[in-house]
Design brief:
Helix content is about 65%, strand content about 5%. It is mainly alpha-helical. The chain has 2 domains: about 325 residues, no CATH class; about 120 residues, Rossmann fold (3-Layer(aba) Sandwich). The strands form 3 sheets. Strands 6-5-7-9-8 form a 5-stranded mixed beta sheet, with helices on both faces. The protein has a two-stranded antiparallel sheet with strand order 1-4. β5, α20 and β6 form a beta-alpha-beta unit. It starts with a helix and ends with a strand.
Amino acid sequence: MLLGDIFKSIDQKEKRFLLLLSLVVVLITALPYLFGYLITPANTSYTGIHALTPGDFNVYYSYIEQAKQGNFVFQDLYTSEKQDFPLIKPFWSAVGIFARIFNLPSWLAVQLSRLLLIPIFIFGAYLFISYLFSEKQKRKIALLFLVFASGFGAISSMILEPGKYIVNGYYHWPMDLWVPEAISFLSLYHLPHILASSILFILVFLLVLLAFENNLYRYSLGAGIASLFWLWFHPFHFFTVFSVLVIYIFVLSIKRKKIQFSHLKHFLLVLLLALPAVIYHFLILRIDPIAGARAVQNVLLTPAPWLLLISYGALGILALIGFFLFWKEKKEKYLFIAIWFMVQLFLLYAPIIFQRRLSQNFHFPVVILAVAALFFLYQFFSKKLSSGWRNQLLKNNILLWFLFVILFAFSNIFIVLSDILLYTNQSYPYFYLSDEYRQALSWLKNNAQKDEIVFSEWINGNFIPGNTGRKVYVGHGVETVNYKNKQDDVKWFFAEDKEDSRKKEFLKEKDITYLFYSKQEKELGNFNPENKNYLQEVFKNQTVTIYALVGD
């Protein structure tokens, strides 16, 4: 089958279905953000942040802000060390240019980018599904499961105790409640680069399979170019893609009792084209101590296996049945899905510190295998049940939707409703910023120089770069080099109103120019910046006072 044949196999009814589904997903995933914006309290502004990984949003806002200020390769604004190597992030450069051209706030540029990618994901996923399944009904059901199905995380959270499952300081909790890479709906709902990664993931594997099947290099060439761009901003997926491909070719060679040289040629072409991105990131990690330090701090372990099973719930159980069905199938594309599922499952517990990142698009083979199992089980039990009972069940749409919601979609509904409730509560520190707080950020943006460093408590430090394009001493658990030590520095500095000579020397040694002082800093202790001869007040309102370090 050629790519053109897949397009031709999709009829007008299916295209209308895809268009309608795209609109529905856009509306559902936009609704909480829109709600949060519309209920913005008086004298505050909306940040566009929601409850999934809220501390990460400002990192991406900092890239957009730098691009809006004319810098299309970036610095890590969350760490104070001198940086010799820029951050090259083409995806976020594109979003930043988009924001600059249309003069958009960063949060709106992020949301519009995400919404624009949703139809691309849905159409791309349906292409792959149509390559796998010829039956129209099976295609549509698979896509609906891909977009809306999840695990049992929400249900289990009513029984499990949040915060209890911490092993060696690492948080264990069902991934369908907090890991946007692990579930397609969360990828559609969260940040656009995760959604772009899912799109490229699907495209690469579809093109590779077409290259293998048809022995046409235009497909492997396309897969290689897509891999290059994809691995440039998500290099860790190199492990997933090439592990799956190597093992698939190996297993297929055993089954056919001969080495698949044509497959190997296409594989090597994809690898060759993707390698520049991988080599670039490898070299940066070797020669740039800042990048190396960030990588060491970026510990992303997969939750315990029993929590992984909860994370995929009924889907995961059905996928295990589907795995054995596909393993026995003669069609090579079904073998590929089975191997993809099993390899990625093992990679989730590979001895690497970014395990959880490798959950990206694991949801796709899980859904394909689960849907195959559903159809198999339906046909099996149809033979056992009377046709009248079966027809009555299928006609009862309300019951079927109820079962789908409870067994498959409840966690996604829980996520959306949780965000709406949190926006309604308006007490979460990341969602809204007061006008006076914004004034202080605007002052820093307009008066601080690009290389000057702002010293503050870490939540303030999280917001400052994304809103000003200026550096902070501490602000993010991964992006800030030596984050825990710098947190301790901040606690020590604000804890007591003494050791002035030592504190003055500390600020000078760290090349800090400004001290940001607000409620958060006051809560850390009784340090009083007003009576310090080494600090000069340069901005003040009811919420924030900014001091400049006075040199000798």
